[in-house]
């Protein structure tokens, strides 16, 4: 990446776009609703069970003009989900400002490990043990989604729930490859602790992106 392009990426005028697609939101509060997904490359959080590891290396994904990303989004849906990778690796101010100028709703899925930038209608915080979320993201999160891979993740879930605001919706979601083992664990836990809800990756059951 030459210096001129790097400066544009650092400002958020260009972003390393991995993919963009129109589909049904599969997880959390908005599951079952149509949305346009913008997947931004780049992530150093490094979850071993991540199902989009190809997103980690931002250099593999071409810097794309933010205005072009917005133009594509406008053609497809009024709800835009920015995901990754870890989108907060980059400055989201320009992208979300342009999306909002076009009358679109802006949602983000983030680990919260980096500074919160951008204008968001909905923040889905999915924190990871390897790189904990910032206080700012915790205070502004609309939903907290903890991926449950093993029993210790329930302890981690309670630690993170103590950091978010009182209106934040709490979800426990089974890690897909371990779902047969952890679903009974989650169901039992939610029944004993009804402040939590179960989130499933319904798009995988529907066999859609």
UniProtKB/TrEMBL annotation:
EC number: 4.3.99.3
Keywords: 4Fe-4S, Iron, Iron-sulfur, Lyase, Magnesium, Metal-binding, Queuosine biosynthesis, S-adenosyl-L-methionine
Reaction catalysed by this enzyme: 6-carboxy-5,6,7,8-tetrahydropterin + H(+) = 7-carboxy-7-carbaguanine + NH4(+)
Pathway(s) of this molecule: Purine metabolism; 7-cyano-7-deazaguanine biosynthesis
Gene3D superfamilies assigned: Aldolase class I
Any one GO BP annotation for this protein: tRNA queuosine(34) biosynthetic process
Comment on bound cofactor: Binds 1 [4Fe-4S] cluster. The cluster is coordinated with 3 cysteines and an exchangeable S-adenosyl-L-methionine. Binds 1 S-adenosyl-L-methionine per subunit.
Family from the record: Belongs to the radical SAM superfamily. 7-carboxy-7-deazaguanine synthase family.
Residue ranges occupied by any Radical SAM core domain in the UniProt entry: 30-209
Record PANTHER family: 7-CARBOXY-7-DEAZAGUANINE SYNTHASE
Residues annotated to bind substrate: 24-26, 39, 83, 209
InterPro entries to which the protein is assigned, alphabetical: 7-CO-7-deazaguanine_synth-like, Aldolase_TIM, rSAM, rSAM_sf
Gene (UniProt): queE
Function recorded in the entry: Catalyzes the complex heterocyclic radical-mediated conversion of 6-carboxy-5,6,7,8-tetrahydropterin (CPH4) to 7-carboxy-7-deazaguanine (CDG), a step common to the biosynthetic pathways of all 7-deazapurine-containing compounds.
Cofactor: Mg(2+); [4Fe-4S] cluster; S-adenosyl-L-methionine
One GO MF term attached to the UniProt entry: 4 iron, 4 sulfur cluster binding
Top-rank taxon, per record: Bacteria
Protein name: 7-carboxy-7-deazaguanine synthase
The protein's assembly and partners: Homodimer.
Residues that coordinate or bind S-adenosyl-L-methionine: 49-51, 85, 126-128
Binding residue positions for [4Fe-4S] cluster: 43, 47, 50
């Amino acid at each position: 990446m030459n210096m001129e392009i790097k400066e544009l990426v650092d400002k958020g005028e260009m972003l390393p776009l991995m993919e963009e697609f129109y589909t049904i939101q599969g997880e959390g509060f908005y599951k079952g609703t149509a949305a346009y997904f913008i997947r931004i490359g780049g992530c150093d959080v490094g979850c071993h069970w991540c199902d989009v590891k190809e997103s980690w290396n931002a250099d593999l994904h071409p810097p794309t003009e933010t205005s072009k990303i917005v133009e594509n989004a406008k053609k497809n849906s009024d709800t835009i989900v920015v995901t990754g990778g870890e989108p907060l690796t980059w400055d989201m101010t320009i992208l979300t400002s342009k999306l909002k100028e076009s009358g679109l709703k802006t949602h983000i899925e983030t680990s919260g490990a980096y500074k919160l930038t951008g204008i968001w209608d909905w923040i889905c915080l999915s924190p990871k043990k390897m790189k904990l979320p910032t206080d700012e993201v915790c205070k502004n999160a609309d939903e907290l989604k903890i991926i449950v891979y093993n029993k210790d993740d329930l302890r981690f879930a309670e630690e993170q729930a103590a950091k978010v605001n009182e209106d934040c919706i709490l979800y426990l979601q089974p890690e897909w490859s371990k779902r047969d083992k952890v679903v009974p664990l989650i169901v039992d836990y939610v029944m004993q602790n009804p402040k939590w809800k179960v989130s499933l990756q319904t798009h995988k059951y529907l066999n859609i992106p």
